[in-house]
Amino acid sequence: MNKTINLQKNLIIFGIPFLIIGLIIFIAKSQLFINNSNNLATGITFDLLLTVPFIYFLLIRKTNIPKTTVVPFLILGIVISSIILPSENQYYLNLFKTWVLPIVEISILSFVIYNVRKGIKHYNLNKTESFDFFTTLKNTCYEILPKGFVIPVVTEIAVFYYGFIYWKKRDLKENEFSYHKESGTIALMIVIIFLVAIETAVIHILLAKWSNTAAWILTFLSIYTGIQIFGFLKSMFKRPISIENNKLFLRYGIMKEATINIEDIESIEVSSKDVELNKETRNLSLLGELESHNLIIRLKKENTLIGLYGMKRKFKNLTFHVDDKIKFKDLVINALQQRFIANKRQR
Q1: What are the domain boundaries of the chain?
Q2: Kind of pairing between the strands at 256-261 and 265-270
Q3: Mean pLDDT calculated for residue range 227-244
Q4: What is the C-alpha to C-alpha distance for residues 18 and 180, in angstroms, rounded to an integer?
Q5: Which of 75, 64, 87, 49 is nearest to 13 (CA)?
Q6: Res. 126 pLDDT band, cuts 50 70 90
Q7: pLDDT single digits (tens) 22-60
């Protein structure tokens, strides 16, 4: 019943603005617009940039939907106006892009920076948890962006942050564990980056003989790929696996992660034996079976492994690598015992 009510509410909240947008597009493509283009272009511009976002705001003001989701409707209005209006009728649209849009962009950026800084202060005050930029950034962006856009946007920002901004050495705490020192992934990624650089230079020279534009497009894509790999590589140094607050935070840079409640763990085994990967058993590594593991954790119930760009996979067993596997296993078992004692006392 509640699902039906929520569906009806969402249909009204999002249906009305999109219905208005559809009507505006219909008018812009009609003979009526051709005959009165100057007057209607002004009305269409203000409707898409102001009226639609304002109506959406009125519809969500008493709901749990973040008010900042008005921004995507504003951006959508700019995009649609740019497409449906002839260039000679985009005077007010250009004014908006020049003077208002930069203010909106700066406001969004300031909001993200403010919330990330607030997250840092929160974690500094609450020493029971470790600050994680990637997690804080996700939580912040969920407040201002539609869910479907959050992970791609956060991933791009995180690649740049870990690759080119975060250079300070990450000292591990007693409850944190590295997983890259004895792994071949770092070396493999470095080799891939060098191969991309060499091949890009060679292919650019060859392709430029046919099309200079195509050569530069391919070069740009190759450089972008190299930046992505470099960001992924460095994030492995900055996002350790950790045990805190009766939870196990399994991370593989920004490429994969899973959060497991300690009480959901059935067993943990130090093992490097080959394991068949399937829908129930997965590997934390991005390379899967190509990278060796030294730990196998089995759960009482299904959990979710989140991969690149928010791809989700269910699992009950997970294989992964930890540099100090013995200490890690001992801490997990100790946390399990403490949780068992605490639950027994509560009963």
Answers
A1: 2-89, 124-165, 176-238, 241-346
A2: unpaired
A3: 91
A4: 48
A5: 64
A6: low
A7: 999 999 988 888 888 888 899 999 999 999 999 998 888
